[in-house]
Structure to design on (780 residues):
């Protein structure tokens, strides 16, 4: 397995700053795609050529540098894609004449800045990332511009843009209840399972765990074999606990997004909390319950803990060729519970603040930033691993880049995104989820550290959640 | 005579006016930077300001709602308890270690002068560096401390994820970072102790401990009290180490009040509620500042 492009995990604010930025050099990507690059080049060149002339193909095509004199303020948090995009921005400036102020702060800083800017409906930014956990809040409050009029307008949108090419599961979180689109997704990160020492599982006659009970049993069977702990994931329980909770038939709220009564006191919530805490405390390394992403990821890279829950991007960082686990890592779907499989999914996309004074130029920027031509070049030149266009996903060259030890992780991503159609991520995009996320982290932390039983801790979380939601003005 | 007095009065008045005019720009800047934000904080604390709720910034229908709600919030009350534990432990440890090191470095020798410089290093490190350093030192797999303890047959489990030890691990890291301040204060005070009483006590046969306890300590005690109050104020501002090392956990055992404010305002967007707690912290710090001012003023009077 060659060195792979790394995107940051895209699920939560507190993780964002702790991920090291890792972008494969163009040389190493070129080595990966050497045999297949000719096709890719051909497609890319054709697309590039068409983009050069066709991005503003209809009425706008003749207007070279039609945004001269316009200054666009663009911001996104510092994931792999937006960081790579910075290198290409001068091309947009050259094509359109617009001046672009482009910045990529860390995720927590970005979220606070964007939240404040959007809530005041200011004109400080023209293009902003729509952070997944803020989608409901930002879209629901009318702080973003509907993009459908732009997508439908042939004078403003080239046919090359091909909005239908975006994965429906990636676009869905960026729409409101009426189906109006507010964002163009640039990534949909998917939760899955990995085994960093799959060889140990195989030697024990085991495969990847299919259910959470399998996971607990397998982790116990391989725990401490070859001095490797059975299970480890980072302490973001607000993300990793939910697949178990939903897998056993529970949920965070009674019926999100309409009924936000928390349901941490349900038997399913208590059972699943008990199980995840048991797995972590029995089969994890010392202190596993408190390990943030950076710590757990280093242990996984070294192959010192075996089974884990990761995002696709996080798993790919473990699979980098420089890591000890690279040759023995195995990817699999997030395990399921008796009620089904509910892996975490997080979409982020470009949007236009409602207060922007340069919406046409902003839309041109978004089209350019998510154009097939540019994305293909980023895949080819920079090893971009996170895409949301089905045409790129279905390209054999791209799939080969993200194949790991014979497992087509691209297919795992597609299957995971497909599962998003169940609508199980609705709990996460409600405006008050940040409060609930903290409460879940604390509740599971209390169980793992032995401060409380699962029942006591979840009942306390329930009481705290009700108080917090009432304080936030939620009617229960 | 009257004319002379009148002239003097006029000169005093003029000097007073010019002082006011001279200070006015600095006072204006100070007010803009501190008083205005503080007033805004107080005003915000009287509203249920939530960025997701339109017009909540001007909703004064329940001006004391946040303050009442605060004391009905068990997590806030819990955070106060955590804060008290952290502050008391920080003050005691930092003063004791600072004083102990100051006593060791009190004499002027070359080695001690070098040591004085080195001891100051933790204090000038950015908190983020201190946090990451101690996070590594408390991570069992990679920590030389844990390895050494295991090697001598005294293995210690992870301190940061153990609810019984997490807060004390934070206190330890904070003490390492901040004790040089107490050390500097104590050292300066020790050097101000007059030699006469010390010599007299020695001639009377007092032991080293008796000299310290009965002569030096009473001299430096006012300074130590002031240092302790400064450390107390500093402990109320504890944030970076907790943010980096425990994120308030495990559970909420290291969630001090300052960290709780951060969560309410920046994570939950409940700016009104967060502001109310911040106002309470600000009031507490004002009270402590007043106490420091009274003590230092009294000491100045004594010395003069």
């Amino acid at each position: 397995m060659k060195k792979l492009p790394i995107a940051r995990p895209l699920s939560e604010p507190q993780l964002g700053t702790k991920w090291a930025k890792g972008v494969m050099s163009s040389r190493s990507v070129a080595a990966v795609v050497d045999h297949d690059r000719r096709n890719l080049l051909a497609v890319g060149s054709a697309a590039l050529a068409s983009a050069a002339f066709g991005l503003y193909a209809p009425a706008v095509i003749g207007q070279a540098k039609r945004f001269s004199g316009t200054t666009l303020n663009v911001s996104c948090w510092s994931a792999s894609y937006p960081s790579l995009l910075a290198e290409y921005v001068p091309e947009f400036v050259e094509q359109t004449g617009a001046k672009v102020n482009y910045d990529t702060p860390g995720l927590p800083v970005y979220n606070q800045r964007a939240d404040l800017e959007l809530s005041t409906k200011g004109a400080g930014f023209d293009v902003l990332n729509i952070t997944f956990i803020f989608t409901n809040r930002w879209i629901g409050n009318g702080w973003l511009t509907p993009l459908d009029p732009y997508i439908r307008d042939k004078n403003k949108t080239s046919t090359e843009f091909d909005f239908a090419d975006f994965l429906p599961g990636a676009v869905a979180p960026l729409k409101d209840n009426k189906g109006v689109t507010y964002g163009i997704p640039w990534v949909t990160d998917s939760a899955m399972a990995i085994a960093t020492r799959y060889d140990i599982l195989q030697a024990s006659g085991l495969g990847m765990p299919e259910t959470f009970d399998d996971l607990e049993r397998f982790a116990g069977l391989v725990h401490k074999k070859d001095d490797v702990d059975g299970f480890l994931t980072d302490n973001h329980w607000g993300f990793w606990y939910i697949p178990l909770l939903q897998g056993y038939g529970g949920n965070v709220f009674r019926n999100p997004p309409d009924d936000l009564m928390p349901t941490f006191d349900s038997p399913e919530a208590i059972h699943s909390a008990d199980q995840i805490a048991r797995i972590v405390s029995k089969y994890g390394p010392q202190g596993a319950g408190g390990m943030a992403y950076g710590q757990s990821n280093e242990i996984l890279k070294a192959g010192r803990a075996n089974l884990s829950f990761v995002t696709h991007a996080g798993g790919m960082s473990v699979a980098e060729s420089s890591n000890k686990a690279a040759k023995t890592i195995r990817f699999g779907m997030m395990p399921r519970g008796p009620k089904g499989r509910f892996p975490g999914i997080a979409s982020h996309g470009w949007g236009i603040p409602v207060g922007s004074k340069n919406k046409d130029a902003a839309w041109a920027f978004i089209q350019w930033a998510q154009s097939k031509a540019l994305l293909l070049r980023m895949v080819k030149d920079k090893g971009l691993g996170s895409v949301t266009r089905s045409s790129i996903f279905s390209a054999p060259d791209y799939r080969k880049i993200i194949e790991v030890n014979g497992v087509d992780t691209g297919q795992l991503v597609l299957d995971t995104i497909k599962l998003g159609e169940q609508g199980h991520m609705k709990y996460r995009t409600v405006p008050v989820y940040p409060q609930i996320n903290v409460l879940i982290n604390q509740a599971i932390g209390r169980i793992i550290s032995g401060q409380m039983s699962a029942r006591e801790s979840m009942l306390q979380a329930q009481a705290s959640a009700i108080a917090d939601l009432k304080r936030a003005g939620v009617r229960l | 005579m009257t004319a002379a007095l009148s002239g003097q009065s006029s000169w005093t008045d003029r000097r007073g006016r010019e002082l006011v005019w001279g200070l006015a720009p600095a006072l204006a800047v100070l007010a803009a930077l501190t008083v205005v934000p503080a007033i805004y904080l107080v005003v915000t604390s009287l509203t249920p300001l939530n960025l997701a709720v339109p017009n909540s910034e001007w909703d004064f229908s329940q001006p004391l709602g946040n303050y009442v709600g605060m004391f009905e919030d068990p997590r806030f009350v819990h955070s106060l308890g955590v804060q008290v534990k952290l502050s008391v432990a920080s003050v005691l440890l930092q003063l004791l270690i600072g004083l102990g090191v100051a006593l060791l470095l009190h004499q002027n020798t070359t080695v001690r002068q070098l040591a004085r410089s080195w001891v100051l290093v933790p204090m000038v490190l950015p908190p983020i560096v201190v946090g990451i350093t101690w996070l590594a030192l408390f991570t069992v797999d990679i920590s030389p401390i844990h390895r050494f303890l295991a090697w001598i047959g005294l293995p210690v489990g992870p301190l940061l994820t153990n609810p019984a030890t997490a807060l004390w691990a934070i206190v330890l890291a904070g003490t390492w970072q901040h004790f040089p301040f107490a050390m500097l204060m104590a050292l300066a005070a020790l050097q101000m102790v007059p030699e006469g009483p010390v010599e007299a006590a020695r001639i009377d046969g007092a032991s080293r401990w008796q000299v310290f306890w009965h002569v030096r300590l009473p001299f430096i005690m006012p300074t130590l009290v002031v240092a302790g109050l400064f450390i107390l104020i500093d402990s109320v501002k504890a944030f970076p180490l907790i943010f980096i090392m425990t994120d308030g956990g495990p559970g909420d055992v290291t969630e001090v009040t300052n960290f709780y404010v951060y969560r309410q305002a920046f994570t939950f967007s409940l700016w009104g509620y967060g502001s109310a707690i911040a106002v309470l912290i600000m009031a507490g710090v004002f009270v402590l500042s007043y106490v420091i001012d009274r003590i230092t003023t009294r000491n100045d009077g004594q010395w003069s």
User: Anything to note?
Assistant: The radius of gyration of chain B is 25 Å. Residues 261 and 274 of chain B are 5 Å apart (CA to CA). Chain B has one domain: 65-303.
